[in-house]
Amino acid sequence: MEITSQAFKSQARGALADEQLQQALTRLKTGFIDKRLDAVNRYPDFEALREQGARIKDHTLAHLDSYLERFESRVTEAGGQVHWAPDGTSACRTIVDICRHAEARRVTKSKTMAGEEIALNQALEAADLEVVETDLGEYIIQLAKEPPSHIIAPAVHKTRQQISELFDTYHHRGALKAKLREVSELVTEARKVLREQFLSADVGITGANFLVAETGSVITVTNEGNAELTNTLPRVHIVIAGIEKVVPDLDDADVLLRLLARSATGQAMSAYTTLSSGPRRPDDLDGPTEFHVVLMDNGRSKTLGGEFRQMLRCIRCGACLNHCPVYGAIGGHAYGWVYSGPMGAVLTPLSVGLDKSLDLPNACTLNGRCGAVCPVKIPLPDLLRDLRERQYEQKLTPSATRYGLSAWAFLARRPRLYQWATGLAARALSLVGARRGAFRRLPLAGGWTSVRDFPAPQGRTFMQAWRRQGRR
Amino acid sequence: MQPTASTAPEGQAPRVGLLVTCLADLFRPSVGFAAVKLLEQSGCRVEVPELQTCCGQPAYNSGDAGHARAVARQVISAFEGYDYVVVPSGSCGGMVRTHYPDLFQGDAQWLGRAKQVAAKTYELTSFLVDIMGATRVEARYRGNATYHDACAGLREMGVKAQPRRLLHAVDGLNLTEMDATEVCCGFGGTFCVKYPEISGHMAADKARHAHDTGADTLLAGDLGCLMNIAGRMRRLGIDMRCYHVAEVLADMASETAPIGRGEAEKR
Fold this sequence. Notes:
The complex is a heterodimer. Helices cover 52% and strands 11% of the residues of chain A. By secondary structure, chain A is an alpha/beta fold. Chain A folds into two domains: 9-301, NagB/RpiA/CoA transferase-like (Rossmann fold); 409-468, no CATH class. In chain A, strand 5 (210-212) and strand 6 form a beta hairpin. In chain B, 48% of the residues lie in helices and 13% in strands.
């Protein structure tokens, strides 16, 4: 997809003014935050589980090559094929080739952020394949021709009204009288439409929540069962996954699954957790005859060797998005790429370039809530600050900010001069502002006063007043 | 990080260095004086090192680690001789406690000094309760208040129960919790001027949650958040008095106008 992260500010303004979006975003609290808290409180020691999750990921990342090779061996032994893709283009090409080889016409897809990352749908459509998203949220945004705005709830920005209208347009040619329909009615209708697609698809593409090195299994979790229909019914099952998805064994996967479901949706377990371990065996009743796993690097090994390695712990639960007050204010599209919220503000600069996403690490108050809820303890605020440091070093920070900081530091390192200057400023501002107590407008403070009054100083600075009392 | 025990000799009042913070120094000295009063009431000897300006956070959070380190060295040198460093701000306190050691990774000499200062640095209300064992305050405040959990205090300094515990001891004050009290107010240092629309949206949410409690007063432990919330409330026409929690606890709220309000609005 086109990367529009550079237009973050104007996109954010648009999002704030979008009433439908604002209405949709109010659901984050009840839909995710409260449920997660409840699930975490019900777990005996969630903090210890987070520690364990972080350790598992760190251990795996430290031995990533050997676990990936073990995974490949197991998949091959089971009759499947592993394909290594250094980047998005090669991953797309590999998948298109598999589809062509299978003489496929219709492809069903279960939600995959790796697929979004490499614009897989466009590549498939360019190869004349009919692509159908089967996760309800993904299906909705496919109809709307929009990218996902949330990594686990791709259509969270859509209201029931908008979805009713989309279904009317695409399922009923605009002939429906009732313009706002019940959720259950919409779900039933989508299910009916999708069922036909599942049954007639030649290839099913899924992502992976985890890859298990010990068994060569691909784990997918869903609440709709669509991954199961995607990986079982068609002749060919293709998995697209980032290389960081591998874990050593099933016990490790168990820990991470507990963390994932609770952090993502506040469930003890997602409704469907499926392990796919190769193609159909001779005595299996169903399953694909071909099983392919495309292991994609796409910048991950570069991250692995750098200072942002901890980001590769991410299990894509979405908790940092749900708890981010900035995400809650503007939603996901303003971030301008497939990943949004705190994790997106780290991943996007790492993936598309620091210079192409200048606002993302800065559009954050460093309030720390994302880091506090991350199930694998990624220090997201620290990583965002580190990205700001890289921007500063590479002189990507605006020059006005740089000069401002230098001037501030010049004063801050000269306490007597600083105290004299702040004393003057406090006095001057309070002379003008003391009666009213605040300024509606102030030169050079437009960023502040555009949305709020600027409180006036009391008069003397503390340091002046303290000295006048003759104390040290 | 585990805070260390006081280095004060047994039986002697601990010697506390007050890090006033640049915002309290410039905008609201009454917060500094309230902190001094509370610390002295709890049995500390308080000093205000002259060679202080700011903790360096503006540079640190803007990616300018070099200037942040230069200012941090100044703070460390000025404060390392005290038994404790107390800050009427969770944000500046968190800067010293958690981020100074990060800043000096790889610099053995300064890392050691940074860690020593970090280990004895506290946010004001948590110091009063956790270290000095304060349970009572000599203060009256007639009003219904709600308390905003400033982010760094809450998540970096463990400030949650302490200010509430002391506020419950204020004669006449009734405390009501607001919805989403742990959610950021949208201040975020330079964030609030770089992204004013987003910041204003967040501050409006905070103002609404505070107002919905029916309280007439909003309290918090960080002046940055307070100036943001008070300024936004004023712009939105929400009539609530905003004070730093220390001003109320030190019984000094009546001596000064609420944040962002004129002299005539002294109580």
